[in-house]
Specification:
CATH topology of the largest domain: Aspartate Aminotransferase, domain 2
Organism: Seriola lalandi dorsalis
Shape: globular
Radius of gyration: 23 Å
Number of domains: 2
Largest sheet: 7 strands, mixed
Structural class: alpha/beta
Number of helices: 17
CATH class of the largest domain: Alpha Beta
Low-confidence stretches: 1-32, 42-48
Helix content: 25-40%
CATH superfamily of the largest domain: Type I PLP-dependent aspartate aminotransferase-like (Major domain)
Protein name: Threonine aldolase 1
Distance between the termini: 26 Å
GO molecular function, one term: L-allo-threonine aldolase activity
Strand content: 15-25%
Keywords: Lyase, Pyridoxal phosphate
Family: Belongs to the threonine aldolase family.
Number of strands: 13
Amino acid sequence: MSCVCRVGVGTCSPPFLLSTTNAAVLGRSSARGYYNAGKPRCPGPVGAARVRVVDLRSDTVTKPGPAMRQAMAAAEVGDDVMGEDPTVNELQKIAADMFGMEAALFVPTGTMSNLIAVMVHCRERGDEMIVGDLSHLHIYEQGGSAQLAGVHATTVTTLPNGTFDLEQLESKIRHGYPDPHYPRSRLICVENTHNIQGGRVLPLSFLQEVRALADRYGLSVHMDGARVMNAAVFQGVPPSTILQHTDTVSVCLSKGLGAPVGTMLAGPQDFIARAVRCRKALGGGMRQAGILAAAGKLSLLDMVRRLEEDHRNAKTFAQALLDCDAPLFAVDMAAVETNILRFRLEEPGLSPSEFCAHMGQVCEGEEAALGQGIQVLMYPHFGNSVRAVWHLGISPEDTQLAIQKMQFVASQYLNEKLRAQ
């Protein structure tokens, strides 16, 4: 399907090539910067009557639907710090059973959940964890393990599919303890699905090998499984099949599963008992938290199967990028496994920031060409790429709107390039 023949003509206002100021407002093309990009403030041309917004910035933008809000309003509650909130207790039992773990703990955020896991596994200041150099825990969680827990991190190279080279991983394990020169290796952290690498799913064979390596040296394995339910859906297995190779896991409820708040931290009973103390110290002990846990119950029981629709929509958009006649985009379709899509811009004159800016504003002539204005929100990302994330708020129809807008922006860019020659 040709981009050029599917869209009308017209020139974006302001001109297609952004000023540096506009690009800065709309985001930086750095893995370390996309959280700071904010929501584009580009209302489009004066007189734009109909505007549809397709928000692909993250699956964290999901909002609870009527059934979830009703469950929250009707939730039976108690004091969770005292262990007396029945809805929280039920959620924790559901999660533990689903993940194949002895126990689980309801925690406000994924960052706190990962930090608690590090604190419990690495009980002495100066202990060391081994993490991927592109992991969320290493890049996007403010170095909390060092800042708050006194835990040192050493990194292994994250491969394109989210895995590590096992020989390199083994080389990072310290063998000199209690030699006072070295930290003590305690923990290996993996991420599934892998955020920066575009929602990649860790192969079960890799997890099995990591588990064997950890056992050989007496280390624990923690999974940042913020989107592990996406991995389970992709692999067609229950999450317990994935998590049998880990000691502990952190699973986010407020991304594709649609809850407004919350993460489940799961592991052995003694681990969770210590995690309760860490949660309290970090300010994560909540009282009548059943109102939030009620949403989490629906997330785990009712929202997992629909993740497959997000995966299909991401693939549909990725294929449309490849079908564009003009070679503006590069996509590895084999790497589009779940709901996160990373694609590169092949045209030197069109940066990720500029592309995202024009996707996020309504251009002159757009309504005439497309029948309405369309704002598609996405972020410049790591390695001269763009990141787009599908979630329960994005339907197949929304995905088609995003494709139309992408085709329009591509056409505008090519037309302006031709006029400049």
